[in-house]
């Protein structure tokens, strides 16, 4: 069953074409991973899918679908005295304590964390919290924009394990932006290579051949250099 069909999607910002003729589809229960260099338009694609920006072409979601979105990071001031519990309750007036406890189990965080302030918890915990926030509304589909961009290597593993576990448990459809080829191999049913255009789409084993990556990243070297230089700062 098709959950999303995108046809000839175009997005321009200030006269610059960011996305050109993007077409793909996602079936229920599938995990689609979107890869591409920085500035390729991956986050822009998400914003178009979520109807957060103008585009031309067609984005058709299955009727009455509930979409959860996990951004790369929370855009809130970490100094504000907001506890984890208060943050989760902001999601909706219908969020009960029982629901919150259930969600914490799913994202593998201890209930003690509820009393902590957002600024006190680790980046990895915060990322899992964002997943929890998205789950509170019982989504059918979860969109993840590089869920581990700021997370150290150990935290990354647990964030992806959490995603994988939730996907099985709730039969979620997952659309994920990632730079990590290991993740693509481990979790993707389908890969979309994006660099302003739709360069390739297919199974990871077909896509992750050198010539595709070279076309996508403009020479292999560039790809492997994305490295972990920005993963080292701890908050």
Commentary on this structure:
By secondary structure, this protein is of the alpha/beta class. It has a domain at 2-72 and 139-229: P-loop containing nucleotide triphosphate hydrolases (Rossmann fold, 3-Layer(aba) Sandwich), CATH 3.40.50. The protein is built from 9 helices and 9 strands. It has helices at 42-49, 84-89, 97-106, 123-135, 153-170, 181-187, 204-207, 210-217, 220-224; strands at residues 2-13, 16-27, 31-35, 56-61, 67-70, 141-145, 173-177, 190-195, 197-202. It has a 6-stranded mixed β-sheet with strand order 5-6-7-3-8-9, with helices on both faces. Helix 4 packs parallel to helix 5 (153-170). The N and C termini lie far apart (42 Å).
Main β-sheet, spatial strand arrangement: 5-6-7-3-8-9
Under the CATH scheme, which architecture of the domain at 2-72 and 139-229 would be assigned?
3-Layer(aba) Sandwich
Measured between the Cα atoms of the first and last residue, the distance is 42 Å
The helix tally amounts to 9
CATH homology-level superfamily of the domain at 2-72 and 139-229: P-loop containing nucleotide triphosphate hydrolases
Form type: globular
Would you state the CATH class of the domain at 2-72 and 139-229? Answer: Alpha Beta
How many β strands by DSSP? 9
Give the SSE string.
EEEHEEHHHEHEHEEHHH
| Structural class by SSE content | alpha/beta
CATH topology name of the domain at 2-72 and 139-229, in short, is Rossmann fold
% residues in beta strands: 25-35%
What is the arithmetic mean of pLDDT? 85
Task: Estimate percent helicity.
Answer: 25-40%
Q: Give the biggest beta sheet.
A: 6 strands, mixed
Radius of gyration: 18 Å
Unreliable segments of 5+ consecutive residues: 220-235
């Amino acid at each position: 069953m098709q959950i999303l069909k995108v046809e000839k999607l175009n997005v321009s910002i200030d006269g610059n074409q960011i996305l050109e003729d993007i077409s793909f589809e996602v079936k229920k229960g599938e995990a689609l991973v979107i890869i591409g260099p920085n500035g390729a338009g991956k986050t822009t694609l998400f914003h178009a899918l979520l109807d957060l920006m103008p585009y031309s072409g067609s984005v058709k979601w299955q009727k009455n679908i509930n979409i959860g979105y996990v951004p790369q990071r929370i855009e809130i001031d970490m100094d504000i005295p907001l506890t984890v519990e208060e943050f989760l309750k902001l999601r909706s007036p219908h969020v009960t304590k029982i629901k919150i406890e259930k969600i914490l189990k799913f994202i593998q965080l201890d209930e003690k964390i509820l009393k902590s302030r957002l600024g006190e918890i680790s980046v990895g915990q915060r990322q899992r919290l964002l997943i929890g926030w998205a789950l509170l509304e019982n989504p059918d589909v979860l969109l993840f924009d590089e869920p581990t961009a700021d997370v150290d290597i150990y935290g990354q593993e647990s964030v992806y394990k959490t995603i994988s576990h939730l996907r099985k448990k709730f039969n979620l459809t997952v659309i994920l932006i990632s730079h990590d080829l290991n993740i693509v191999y481990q979790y993707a049913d389908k890969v979309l290579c994006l660099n302003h255009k739709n360069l390739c789409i297919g199974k990871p084993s077909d896509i992750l051949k050198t010539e595709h990556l070279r076309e996508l990243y403009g020479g292999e070297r560039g790809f492997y250099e994305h490295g972990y230089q920005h993963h080292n700062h701890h908050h």
